[in-house]
Amino acid sequence: MAMNGTTNGSTNGTTNGTTTNGTTTNGTTNGTTTNGATNGHLNGTSNGHVGEETPATKVANGQTPGNWVPCAEKPAYSRRKIRIACVGAGYSGLTLAHKIDHELKLNDVTDLVIYEKNSAVGGTWFENTYPGVACDIPSHAYGFLFEPNPNWSKFFSPGAEINEYIQRTAKKWNLERNIEFNSRVKETVWDDESGKWKIQVDQDGTLKHDEADILVNATGFLNKTNWPVIEGLADFKGKLVHTSKWDNEYDWTNKSVAVIGNGSSGIQCVTAMQPKVKKLVNFVRNPTWVSVNFCFDKTPDGLNFEYTEEQKNEFSSDPKAHFKHRRELEASVNGFFYGMYKDHPMQQGLKALCRQQMEERVQGIKDPEVVSRILDLDFNPGCRRLTPGEGYLEAFANDNAVMSFKPIERITEDGIRTVDGQEHKFDMIVCATGFDTTFIPSWDLVGRNGARLDERWKINPEAFFSVQVDTMPNYFVFNGPNPAVSHGSVLTQISWTCDYLLRWAKKIATEDIKSIDVKREAVDDYNVYAQEFLKRMVWSDGCHSWYKNGKGSGHVTGVYPGTILHLKDCLENIGGEHFNIDYRSKNRFHFLGNGESLHDKSGAGDLAYYMDTMNI
Ligand SMILES: Cc1cc2nc3c(=O)[nH]c(=O)nc-3n(C[C@H](O)[C@H](O)[C@H](O)COP(=O)(O)OP(=O)(O)OC[C@H]3O[C@@H](n4cnc5c(N)ncnc54)[C@H](O)[C@@H]3O)c2cc1C
Ligand SMILES: NC(=O)c1ccc[n+]([C@@H]2O[C@H](COP(=O)([O-])OP(=O)(O)OC[C@H]3O[C@@H](n4cnc5c(N)ncnc54)[C@H](OP(=O)(O)O)[C@@H]3O)[C@@H](O)[C@H]2O)c1
């Protein structure tokens, strides 16, 4: 990240909604700059008036202008320890913990705490335990980068195995030492005076108060359960579950079951339950592409398969062979972006293949009306998040399974009534109705001057490269609005996001910075550009999708406007010029200290250390 050359964007002008005029305070203030307003500069005229003494000349002449500070008696870039509070211990929060403790070894700069509402790590994979839950990205491209797993059982592994792998990894690397479990963050309020987030955490009924220099939102983009708004839902006397809140104590075998929804969760659930239930009706509002598997060309016959013991042994004993396999899959998932590009040959190929496969898969379905609805797709594959579904359409060839396109009128005590007046009796209703994808945090987040994302994002969320948002100083989010999740490895981009935020953390800790706050105009420019680009992608087609915040058209909020490698370049190069930076002292260079580098050690250090890396 090109953070050097950062300008103090908060001088001269309108910052954070308040107008500041950069008035000089003659060095009599308390030594902190608030919103960059009072650092001794001359109202935006960087050179002052011709013939006037500059502040520097004044200092040379023994005076103390507004931006005067005494020299700090420590080397430049000395580190102060800053506290990072992270919310969530899924893949994102744990990657952050590993980066700090192991990969980047930043424990001398950061004091990390992770608050996790659950009793264990795992996030998505701890919470989603419905029948059939599995990843649909190849397992070898869906694990921590620092913990390759040679033993994945399948090309696409079951959810329980992923959860077990995450738990094991957290223990192996001692990542749980940073985590406070059963701790639900309730409120975080930015305090401009101290430059800290004031945090309230509900720990099993006891309220804990904490504060942190940096707040990280690692709560996932699919973590807030979306119960459907259907009349009578509370009246149902049978078993009611949501896929993300499964009740593993309940025995659903041989029962009559309704599954509402045909997203990824619904598709996996229906496929797994159909062979074991008495009756299954899948209530579907809109048809969807049931796609070929991701990376189908990397499997023997396009289908999921079990790795043999020989393969697993080879991956264990020959890390290079394992790495080769991982690298090949990583490139494949990253390249899937072009399958999402309107009219690209890869999109056309994908469409043809999916259609051909769907036509084959509906062969056994007896009702021609249902078949024609299933195949009546007037948007491109990928517009709704792609849903591979081995066995899903085939399930409806069985006498115990029906796909119903009849709109639901209401839920009754005994089941579901559709608008045609038909009553369907069920023992169990499964809501496979997805998640709240507004990106609004799951707690009360209050930023500078009382700014609130729940108000600002009522219509659509907008962030800066998915990771920051103006008015929320020192706040970072993994997979915020427009995340890079439609293709590519989520774990890889989570790792890059960690690198990005930790570079900021280091800068804050070593350059005496109080806060950084991305400029509103930068957020606006970025989002305008992003929406223009996204018109090229199938995600902007007309279809109901969480990629469009549940809407059928308009603003695309669920995917990144570019490839995953594009995001990497951006996260590495975004400049400080897009940020308002406030310092803890009234002179931004207070961190220059006593004129020494950390290497100098009062002259006793290795004073030619840089020669060690020279080519002799
Ligand atoms: C069923 C399912 C299958 C998926 N399959 C795939 C797949 O195959 N490939 C893929 O790339 N992606 C998949 N995803 C997306 C998946 O969510 C991400 O890949 C990834 O797991 C996200 O990790 P995370 O750590 O960012 O968030 P999560 O795993 O969602 O973790 C967030 C954590 O934050 C905690 N939390 C939330 N609010 C609070 C609070 N207020 N206080 C304290 N803690 C809080 C939660 O308890 C949770 O532990 C799937 C999602 C679902 C729901
Ligand atoms: N690895 C995997 O295989 C996997 C598995 C599960 C989830 N995921 C991830 O999680 C995301 C979410 O998947 P999801 O299936 O949980 O949710 P989803 O894709 O948002 O699907 C929700 C489904 O519920 C329907 N629905 C919502 N409200 C309804 C209502 N009031 N009445 C009737 N139907 C209603 C929707 O219908 P409409 O289409 O008409 O809106 C849609 O079919 C996926 O896109 C994917 O990123 C991945």
TrEMBL record:
**Key word Kinase present in the record?**
no
| UniProt cross-references to Pfam families, sorted A to Z | FMO-like (PF00743)
Region annotation (Disordered) maps to 1-65
**What name appears for this protein in its UniProt entry?**
FAD/NAD(P)-binding domain-containing protein
The beginning of the lineage is: Eukaryota, Fungi, Dikarya, Ascomycota, Pezizomycotina
Biased composition annotated in UniProt, kind: Low complexity: 1-45
What is the top-level taxon of the source organism?
Answer: Eukaryota
- Specify whether Signal is a keyword of the entry: no
Q: Which UniProt keywords apply?
A: FAD, Flavoprotein, Oxidoreductase
Q: Which cofactor does it need?
A: FAD
One GO molecular function term of this record is:
flavin adenine dinucleotide binding
